[in-house]
Give the backbone structure.
Amino acid sequence: MHWRSHVSGFAFSFVFIVSYFTNKFVLSVLKFTYPTLFQGWQTFVGAVLLFLSGKLGWVEMSRIPRTAALSWLPGSFLFVGNIYAGSRALSRIDIPFFFTLQNSSLVVSYIIARAVHREKTQRLKIISVCLLLLSAVNLPLCDPQFDHSGYVWALCHLFCVGTYRVFQVHKSTNLSVLLLGLAAHPTGDITGALEFPSLQSHTFHCGCCASALLGFLLLLATVRLKRGPSLEHFKAWVFVSKVTAVLLSPLVFNMDFNSASLLCVIGSHVGEALLLYADRESPP
């Protein structure tokens, strides 16, 4: 059982990294900045694969009662905001900086949880949260390729991620997929996308198909990994995946960074590691 959990972790990490790199390639390198259409394509392919997997018995799917759907409506909108704002931010911000800002969503989760539960907090957890916050706040001041719009979308993304993490107790994935489909309606993006230079490109088509398939595989890998020994085990693999992606991204994409911005990236991941350690050592 122990080796199986590691196999699931390595599979998750591989799909996680390749998925982010593929999305970055389509959104940033190919400059396809039409997230509603990109999101709609991913949602359509993911929904078809999920439906087929359910029919073949590979995944369990159940109907959503109306009362459950209504109670999970706010959480599903936060999930949609997470995906949409994250796509906008990732198209404008390098992956190491994106993860540094995304890590600060843990600060949002911490503040909301503290306001709701008012429980005593470990000193180590406070230090880690402060380190995450300082890294995110100082990054825009150090980024040599500062993009105002990208950071605004990243702010929306981290707020949605942090709030959704607190809201998420029994996740309603089916409802979230439904709202993703509704959010991906063909608005003004369709006119611009039809004039997009790479729309007829073989590379573009392959990138979009790979992105949709990887998104579905990441969903399956996430579900499988969460069935492992503990939630801390899952969080540790997410941390390892992000750090690996940060280390590999300069080898794949052109990046411009300096010592100050690099220090922010390192500080953010050190803060996340301390938070994981604090959660592991805290009593249940």
Q: What stands out?
A: The chain has one domain: 2-281.
